[in-house]
Structure to design on (266 residues):
């Protein structure tokens, strides 16, 4: 059975389904199999409210752009809920479209594949974190303090958006393993930002100069990446805040110049 028609408001109730749609305001045409809708809604329940990472510096949007943004956010939120409840492999684009209350064609206009949804969910951290590292150099403090703050910022992000990242981490790893260029570009953004932080420390006089900053940046990135794997890729209960704090302490011992204690006078 096909259900066709138009919905004129931002919220519209599907007769017999007992579920409120969250769709962009204005008239749009829908054509969705009712059995797909009912099956998908049975999986995700009432209108999903998944916490998604935000983006800094959002521009003021016109009505058209605002509607597109609403659809975009709804698709991402619905996707996370479906991936979390039934697994990435068991979720289809048809289910995502049905739960988002948009046509399959509209969904593919936004996201051509499930992999593209995963990449979009990963973008906020990949876009924002290198800037956080650079911004730390503009704030007073030692390099040891900046490294500690850098790991604390990462821990805060992945704790706040744990549900999202637990869903997408393994899929993001799979996607990036088949796209060397994109993977190298993502790592380079992090690495360049860490190198900038270390070079600032060299100029400040509290970072060692006998080792290339690039080598030290690799040393700092390794536990960051391993920590994310242990949190989202393994089965153990990983306390990211406590462990990232320990990583930061060990790394500062490796790259920071410690002032020698004064010899007490006799």
């Amino acid at each position: 059975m096909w259900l066709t028609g138009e919905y004129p408001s931002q919220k519209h109730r599907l007769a017999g389904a007992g579920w409120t749609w969250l769709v962009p305001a204005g008239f749009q045409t829908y054509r969705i199999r009712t059995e797909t809708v009912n099956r998908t809604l049975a999986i995700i329940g009432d209108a999903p409210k998944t916490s998604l990472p935000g983006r800094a510096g959002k521009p003021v949007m016109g009505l058209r752009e605002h509607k597109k943004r609403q659809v975009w956010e709804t698709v991402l939120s619905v996707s996370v809920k479906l991936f979390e409840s039934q697994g990435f492999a068991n979720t289809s684009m048809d289910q995502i479209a049905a739960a988002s209350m948009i046509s399959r064609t509209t969904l593919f206009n936004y996201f051509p594949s499930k992999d593209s949804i995963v990449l979009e969910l990963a973008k906020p951290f990949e876009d924002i974190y290198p800037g956080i590292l650079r911004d730390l150099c503009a704030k007073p403090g030692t390099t040891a303090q900046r490294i500690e703050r850098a790991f604390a910022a990462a821990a805060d992000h992945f704790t706040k958006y744990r549900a999202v990242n637990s869903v997408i981490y393994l899929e993001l790893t799979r996607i990036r393993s088949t796209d060397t260029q994109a993977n190298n570009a993502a790592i380079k953004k992090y690495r360049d930002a860490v190198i900038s932080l270390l070079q600032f420390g060299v100029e400040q006089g509290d970072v060692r100069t006998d080792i290339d900053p690039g080598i030290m940046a690799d040393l700092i990135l390794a536990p960051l990446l391993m920590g994310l794997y242990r949190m989202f890729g393994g089965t153990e209960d990983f306390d990211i805040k406590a462990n990232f704090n320990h990583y930061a302490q060990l790394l500062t011992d490796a790259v920071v110049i410690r002032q020698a204690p004064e010899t007490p006078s006799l």
The chain has two domains: 2-110, 114-255.
